[in-house]
Fold these 4 entries.
Entry 1:
Amino acid sequence: MSRSPDPQDLRELIRRVAALHRGLAFLHQGDLESVALTLHVHPFTVVKARALLDDPDARAHLIEAVHRAQRELEKGKRQHRPR
């Protein structure tokens, strides 16, 4: 029986990938179990995200979502810096 990840699971994975240096490369090429454990997601979520990376249109959307999450992280860091 196949399990499809919840959209919230994918959003959380995107947020966590964005926080890692070379997170997209790790998601795409890292050992499945290592990626799932590091990102604190179910392996099915990693498999689904990898399938998205294999589809040109979906890949573009996923990469843009990661870039948006990275910008949000940077924005949050700037707002919390002591002046």
Entry 2:
Amino acid sequence: MLLQVLAINSHLGCPAKMNLDMAVDEGGPSRQFLSDAWKQLHALTVPVIGKDGKTIEKVKLFEHAGKALELIPIMDDEFTRSIAKVAEGDAIEEATHRLKLYSRAAARLMVCT
């Protein structure tokens, strides 16, 4: 999902990146925010309501590639298998919808940095 979002939106560019030198804050807080977001991206998870309807499981969107900031996005089929292990019915649809939203946000962050 994330790779698809990146591929679809890669032609749009990122206005924040193009105008980085013109930022009112001169890149200080904005750059710090992006740096902190990148450091925490590996912990991004999608909450999934368990089969019992009470427990909430967390399914990761990224895996570490070995080095500190190298991340590998979880592929759609692997994500779907992870969800199917812990949820059923409407919970699967809701988690898939959240995956799309989270992937879009992560892709925007990646494109803008």
Entry 3:
Amino acid sequence: MNWCNGFSTTLTLQCRSLSLARCTAARRAPGGRWQLLVGHGHWQHARLNAAWLAGPCAGLAFEGAAGSRYKVLVLAPAQSPDDWRRLRVHLKLPRT
């Protein structure tokens, strides 16, 4: 488990932004809370609204705290094998 600025993470992903709002990384904490690395290198809380998996790719759609929308592409080769596995497991579990 990683510790980043007091935010205990179970998963940290390198992302490619697909929207005008820039996001270069996403991290997930226990309990399903997400943060995005946006703008000039600051972390922002976000909610995961939608996601898809297709082979070595995952698409994630987030809504930031200020209402900004972020769409990101996550590629398996850019992640550690453990983080990629954790993401796949998280996305396959039903959300309540």
Entry 4:
Amino acid sequence: MAKISLKNLTDRQREVWRMRYQYGWRVKRIALELGTSWPNVCQILRRARHQAGLPYRRNISVIRTKPRVIRGQSLSRFFGY
């Protein structure tokens, strides 16, 4: 993996970037540490990725299929008991 230059990031972005990618902290832990909300941390990370020239996802909604419900069946239905 290529080394990313953090020189063009703000101090806040650099701090959040290190907490997330160097220390491996989760977003909620970073938010608690900084006294902000987790969506704000996600936004800071998104802006940092953009400034670093890395690709980022942009409000792509994931369409999930409805989970299948598997109901129990009686054996007599299949074997004619």
